[in-house]
Amino acid sequence: MENIYMLSDAVILAKLGARIKSTRLKQNITQESLANSANISLSSIKKIENGEIKSFDSLLRVLRVLGKLDIFQTLIEDEQLSPSEYYNLVNSTKKTTRKRAVGKLSNNKNERSEW
Questions:
Q1: In this structure, is residue 19 part of a structural domain?
Q2: Distance CA 45, CA 35 (A)
Q3: How many domains does the chain have?
Q4: pLDDT by residue for the chain (115 residues), tens digit each?
């Protein structure tokens, strides 16, 4: 398996386009039918399959029609807090009591204020 972080953007887009085309063919869907179902142009489908993915909206529409939106599942799920994170969150919202300032107070009555 290749390290995706080592691939250029163009290579990643080409691989995505090839995978979309492969999925479409396995489902026996024509480019024209996919374009109509996704409500995008036929030329957009051809560009996407060639790795020219310019519109995320179009990509989402194509993946929805092909039943492949689940690849984004981990990105949209709410992360669960660990027990220690939950404890820290709850305790950070508790109201803290105000404390008196600590330090030397000047008892010199002759001291004049600059105001």
A1: yes
A2: 6
A3: 1
A4: 789 899 999 999 999 999 999 999 999 999 999 999 999 999 999 999 999 999 999 999 999 999 999 999 888 887 777 888 777 877 777 666 667 777 665 555 566 666 6
User: Which CATH number goes with the domain that contains 16?
Assistant: 1.10.260.40
**CA–CA gap between residue 74 and residue 16 (Å, rounded):** 18
Which structural domain, as residue segments, surrounds residue 62? Answer: 4-71
How far, in whole angstroms, is CA 82 from its chain's centroid? Answer: 21
